[in-house]
Amino acid sequence: MVDINLLQPPFSLLDDKGRQRVRDGVDLAYFNESEVILDAGQPGEHVFLIHKGEVAELDLNASERERRIGHYTAGDLFGAISILNGTSRYRFQAEQESLCYLLPRALFEDICTAYPAFDNYFRQHLAEKARHVLERRAEGGMSMARFMLARVAECMREPVVVEGHTTIAEAVTHLRERHADSLLVSHAGRCGMVTKTDLLDALVQQGLPHSAEVGGIAHFTLITSHADDYLFTALVSMTRHEVARVVVMEGAQAVGVVELTDVLGYFSSRAHAVSLQIEQAEDIEALARASARLPQLIQTLTAQGVKLRFAMELLAALNGRIIHKAFRFLIPEDRQSQSCLLVMGSEGRGEQILKTDQDNALILADGSDWPGIEDAMGALTDTLGRLGYPPCPGNIMVSNPQWVASESAWRGKIARWASSRDPDALMNLAIMLDAHAIAGNASLLEGLREHLFARGSHDELLLSYFARGVLRYSTPLTLFGTLKRPEHGIDIKKGGIFPIVHGVRTLALERRVAATSTFARLDALVDDGRLDRPFADDLGEAMSLFSELRLRQQLESLEGNDASQEPNRVVVQRLSGFERDLLREALHTVKEFKQRLSQRFHLEY
User: Fold this and answer.
1) Which is higher by pLDDT, 123 or 24?
2) How do the residues of the chain divide into helix, strand and coil, expressed in percent and rounded to 5?
3) pTM for this one?
4) Distances 219 to 190, 446, 561 between C-alpha atoms, Å
5) What is the pairing mode between strands 161-163 and 182-187?
């Protein structure tokens, strides 16, 4: 028996008995520098796990410059696909003296048969691999990782539906008999909702008689979900919209209701405690105390294995509630209806994990008059600073008059930016494409977004200039397709996150996709036929991987464990073999995406 570390995937997918079979069955082999370990066209007879040394993966059909497509070091494995496919497609050659553990083909196939998860690992694409890791990140009990995979159908109640002519007295009886907190109301061809609180308000505050019909007091603007949606998204919706329940729809038919109490009973979430503290805040000081808890919440979510996309959505909702409430504290109610506060950048896309610089703007309704608006916006900027959102170094904030304008003035700005196409103008267009209405009259932004789409979606020259941004930064891969490994680390934001975000943003402009989240844009582009689902999934998982690696570095800096390391830089040498493998695949996905965009928008010219 040899001493081999089997704690990393895919061997972590085996139980103790399976790992012992591996230890009992492997041999240790030595290979000289430049020795061919497995040649193209050769039958796969072993899975190779590198103990020491480096191995290159070579495509003999490619040009000399592009031949080296992979690079493996200690902890990496290769050869499994050659067994599954019958022969090796590529050559694997030692780049220095190397020691490898050899797992025989027969034993590998037996283990694959006995452990389907182990077998599936070698057949999965990047997106599937990343999901596989998430599912197994936490074991036992109702862990956060398992909660993240729960569906709305697992937690929804059967709806109690009444007609609009049902009286308040009858509605109360229905609630008592069904032990429910809400009723769905079918009235005049619409579906609405009435809650216990609505009925109490109708009787006590409005003084309505018991015989009054519920159709007159029901709410017909519902927050909805679908049975196969993730339960966590329902929690995000409740947080974002300040509601305690969502209606589950199947087409135009209401099939269930998910109550906040049920979700919290299914999984007790610290996120709700923070949300409750935000909603109960009655002044800026109380809001600041709630805001200060967000970094700790992020650390908890990531430690419990939350899928980063969901964590981003939840934190965007919580940040949105904080900024919205600050706006309400500071701005008179009559001014709120005449204006729309926008957040932009990563906050606008809902992809901000730890708080970054303020990126905001204000739209004023045409014809509105707001004396002293400069002082009001300066106070808002200062307040957001107290809440943990530092000023933007580029001065893209409401305290800058350039980012406060009427509807007509904003349309003029967009037209000038689209016509000039200089770098600053293109950056401003990108900022506005990511804008999200956080407070005030959201319809003001909807009209402006439609104007932006009308001006830019069919302008091929503008789209070409706009798309060139994806080539601004090089992908941190060597000419041979391996990871660059500078001592100071690779900039994962420039090399990985930005090309995906901006490339997807460009396609969203072209296809008039109103969503601002990169993930939501990817889904919309698949529905539109602009991207195929497998590639969109790989882009989404690559984005999640880059963001997770970046977040890990940011949290280490926050905790003081590595204050010298820049928060956007990832040191490849510190990653596990499996993480390097995922990172390499993810960056190759970015490289392919750049190539597709170059062909579509003729960036080679």
Assistant:
1) 24
2) 50, 15, 35
3) 0.65
4) 10, 23, 51
5) parallel
